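HUMAN: Ready with one sample?

ASSISTANT:
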Amino acid sequence: MVSPLLAKAAPTGREIVNVTPERAGWSHIGFRALRLGAGDVESVHTGSRELCIVVLTGTVDVMVDGQTHVGLGKRHSVFEEVSPAAVYVPAGKAVQITVAAQCTSGAEVALCSAPGGADSAQRQVRVMDSAAMRRSVRGQGSNTRYVCDILPHDDPTAAHLLVVEVLTPASHSSSYPPHKHDLEQPPTETQLEETYYHRLNPPQGFSFQRVYTDDRSLDEACAVENHDVVMVPRGYHPVTAPHGYDLYYLNVMAGPNRFWVFKNDPAHEWMLAPAAV
């Protein structure tokens, strides 16, 4: 039986996966991933929601309210050590995404959305500078992973959205030790829904993700394949990449306030203590 937290990818077709707030049973995050062939065009209207377009692979032109931003994206694979192209679009905007003429192999694009916020009329379209995106290394040993902040909480561009991508090498764990962010108790913890869009290299691989609460009223373990999405409404949510398969995931977070503070599972926090000499 497929976990209710797992959105399986369509193996073919334009729409890879689509997670709406209604499907997830929450209030904020929407997530779509699209396969666009050479010359394909995708048109959307943001309505009352804000949007972050992430060009996962390929090159696209993005037009917002008649103004075109050309040649966005240069990656052939999400596993390249290159930051993605991304565009923030506030609520109330008409958007057209076109695979660039020079991109004959097509593109993969993620559409990350959340409520536009009360001040959406004052927010501006922004093409994020890939070269300026903050890249970092977290963890150590088999807990090492590589992070690129696309739309972090200290960037005031968005009203609710936070977007980040993570590369976890084979045989490593990520989002680990297990942590959660489901209570609005700043500055110790904040309430944020979250999606994980998984990619595997080689693509026939799989990863494992567990989502669980302290009282185990939620306790789901998912075997996740290439292009699948795991929805995290609450609870701790660690991920493991098996031997031989590197794992990439795109995280989208959103909640009532745009601030990311998490709480580690006390049962596993011991591993963060400095090693005895």
About this structure: The first strand starts at residue 6 and ends at 7. The helical segments are 21-24. DSSP finds one helix and 23 strands in the chain. The mean pLDDT is 96.
